Amino acid sequence: MRRSSLLAGVFAMLACVLPSPADAAIHGPDPTVAALQASSGPYAVSQTTVADANTPGFGAATIYYPTTTAEGTFGGVAIAPGFTETQSAISWLGPRFASRGFVVITFNTNSGGDSPASRGTQLLAALDYLTGSSAVKTRVDASTLAVAGHSMGGGGTLEAAKARPALKAAIGLTPWDSDKTWPEITTPSLMIGAQNDSVAPPSQHAIPFYNSIPASTPKAYLELAGADHSAPNSPNTTVGAEGVAWLKRFVDGDTRYTQFLCPSASAAPAGTVSQYLSTCPF
What we know:
Blueprint: H1 2-17, H2 33-37, E1 45-50, E2 61-66, E3 74-80, H3 93-98, E4 102-107, H4 116-132, E5 140-150, H5 152-163, E6 169-173, E7 189-194, H6 206-212, E8 219-224, H7 237-250, E9 273-278
Parallel strand pairs: 3-4, 3-5, 5-6, 6-7, 7-8
Antiparallel strand pairs: 1-2, 2-4, 8-9
Helix pairs in contact: 4-5
């Protein structure tokens, strides 16, 4: 009898400590491949622009957010463009992610030639602005934030994750960085390379980045078949679908999306992925 009481007490304590499915931010209906591949999700989206003069530490920005206030707060995502690019190069991802239940800020960097390290700092500044003083700060859960970026902006995602391990997810889109090793990264990281990328060849950038992130960190490398460096600069079904799945899984903690990441990138249209590596299961 005493043993039963003791076990009951142990289980009760564990129930208080261990996370449960209820702790995850479950936003939206049950996911399907068709829903992930669609250009927009279940949430209506609004946007607001922010002038360069009003952005501390980065350039002019645009914020995309779900219009509903019925589901509480949403995770936040900052997205940086690549070398010489403006936010228009990655703007399609704003409504793509926001319509799935995220508050997204895209921005111009201070200079087109800013290094990946500088872009990482600007990604964090954008998140701090989004959660601290933006017009939509009350819509964002400041404890569930992520970064994404293209090219040098993709390298910036690793720089940001290194500087702020509390980030829930990082997505590098044909990422470029002179630093090839990232043993410090504990943030779940998705690196998306392009098979025919001559600017940031995967063998010199995305794959070494992926390989150097510790195996204890949830990570994946997805290679876009037949694509080049600029593939993420326009609507891309594979980037959109798998990017959303990664954010939902690790920012929201929504395990309904694991099926699209493990053991394969199953939300991607057939023939669009030439290589997929991961630390599944996660």
